[in-house]
């Protein structure tokens, strides 16, 4: 058995593969060590606890699902961005069955605060991206936003609809696109 893993990324890749093959519960220090062909101690060189491994794994899954697209035009147009986000949600559900519904439940306990923090950071990144797209979208009417109804509040609404769609496993963006069309253009 090897005693050294070449990288933290290799451990996270293996953890993602375990989720794909056997679900969220398959990821623990021992199973990841076995899948990497290393000792348990080798995993602890990179992650000081199961909670740290789980948190980093969640973050890596979110990053894989919502990686920056090659086509930067996605971040210039609100509707294109929403279509891209829903496509990525569908991809994530297919690649990691049950991930969106189940992973957040694993962060209920106190020792899981790092994982919860990482998940919230990823969500904040998506929310900030939505907000930026709204501000860059040349098609948005100049009077679409007011002091009370800001681009930030609208991006919060869009993100809430996205999270709701994730939980329902509904990857059809047509209703959200209609809301955007009627509200902004």
Indicate the topology.
Layout: H1 8-22, H2 29-36, H3 40-44, H4 50-65, H5 78-95, H6 99-102, H7 113-136, H8 151-168, H9 174-184
Helix pairs in contact: 1-2, 1-4, 4-5, 4-7, 5-9, 7-8
Short description:
This protein has 185 residues and is mostly helical. The protein is 64% helix and 0% strand. The chain has two domains: 8-48, Orthogonal Bundle (Arc Repressor Mutant, subunit A); 69-184, no CATH class.
Number of strands: 0
Q: What share of residues are in beta strands?
A: under 5%
Unreliable stretches (pLDDT < 50, length at least 5) are none
Structural class: mainly alpha
Mean of residue pLDDT values: 87
Rg result: 19 Å
Helix content: 55-70%
What does this entry look like structurally?
This protein has helices spanning 8-22, 29-36, 40-44, 50-65, 78-95, 99-102, 113-136, 151-168, 174-184. It is mostly helical. The protein folds into two domains: 8-48, Arc Repressor Mutant, subunit A (Orthogonal Bundle), CATH 1.10.10.60; 69-184, no CATH class. Helix 1 crosses helix 2 and helix 4 (50-65) crosses helix 5.
